[in-house]
Design goal:
About 75% of the residues lie in helices and about 0% in strands. The chain has helices at about 5-25, 35-55, 65-80, 90-105, 120-155, 160-165, 170-195, 205-230, 235-260. Helix 1 (about 5-25) runs antiparallel to helix 4, helix 5 (about 120-155) packs antiparallel against helix 7 and helix 8 (about 205-230) packs antiparallel against helix 9 (about 235-260). The relative contact order is 0.10.
Length: about 260
């Protein structure tokens, strides 16, 4: 009964929070109203998700529900990070995405896709997968902003939004912190995933496994290169985006094709 209203009010909070952040950027002032609204949006988004779980007797692992949950976790991680790190402005990109994923889930509900065998290995795999994707998603968004910031500084024409961001060095340092934490959860996700893989082909997990391992290799190499060879700048940005693209295709590409196009799940 309250599921849809919770989702709609969450979307509204995300939208207003985004507009307030844009206003803060152009006014060059920092207010807490946008963050408070974002927290309210996340709270309502969480309520919507919990009510959906109750309605379906478990989490619905459809494409739209999974994307909505990932967007919720990304928003939540951003808000926690904003407590002591200068990442609030990333909300101008993340909150609209969270609202869009929630709109998709509310507007186009799909039939439930519950898990048949739900044990601790599966729970660990799901939790670490979502956390890894969420952290590396924030890292990818930060890499995009870092690229734009670097380009504008090189041409001596920084826009107001770029000027509102932290210094280039601080942004880069935070990027590698996000990657290192995300890689930790991705490692745990891959290890726990091998506990319940029985037949890669029958479970449609070949491409997901290969792409996830590829992403792990890319992010690991990037961190090693950072420590040993001081990799930074455009190289770090490009490999971050390549690694996240591989992870995005692993987590959602195959699921979208199987569920929405081939109708096999």
């Amino acid at each position: 009964m309250y599921t849809i209203p919770a989702g709609l009010f969450s979307i509204l909070c995300y939208a207003i929070a985004t507009l307030l952040i844009v206003k803060e950027i152009f006014a060059a002032k920092q207010h807490r109203t946008s963050i408070k609204l974002a927290w309210l949006g996340v709270g309502l988004h969480s309520t919507y998700t919990v009510l959906n779980i109750q309605n379906h007797g478990g989490f619905n692992f459809s494409f739209s529900s999974t994307a909505s949950l990932a967007a919720l976790v990304i928003s939540l991680l951003l808000l926690f990070a904003a407590q002591d790190k200068p990442v609030t402005k990333l909300g101008v990109l993340i909150f609209p995405v969270a609202a869009a994923m929630l709109i998709l889930d509310v507007s186009y509900p799909t039939r439930p896709h519950p898990l048949i065998n739900h044990n601790w290995q599966m729970s660990t795999h799901i939790l670490t997968s979502i956390l890894a994707f969420s952290l590396l998603n924030i890292a990818a968004l930060q890499a995009i902003l870092l690229a734009i910031q670097d380009q504008q500084l090189r041409h001596h024409h920084p826009k107001r939004f770029m000027l509102a961001l932290p210094p280039l060095q601080a942004m880069e340092s935070l990027l590698f912190q996000m990657i290192a934490t995300g890689l930790l959860f991705l490692t745990a996700s891959l290890i726990s995933g091998f506990f319940f893989i029985e037949d890669l082909f029958a479970q449609h997990l070949v491409h997901k496994t290969v792409l996830s391992i590829l992403a792990w290799i890319i992010f690991s190499a990037l961190l090693i290169g950072r420590v040993r060879y001081g990799w930074r700048g455009q190289s770090a940005i490009q490999w971050t985006l390549i690694g996240f693209t591989s992870l995005l295709l692993a987590y959602f590409g195959s699921k979208m094709v199987l569920e929405l196009i081939l109708k096999k799940i």
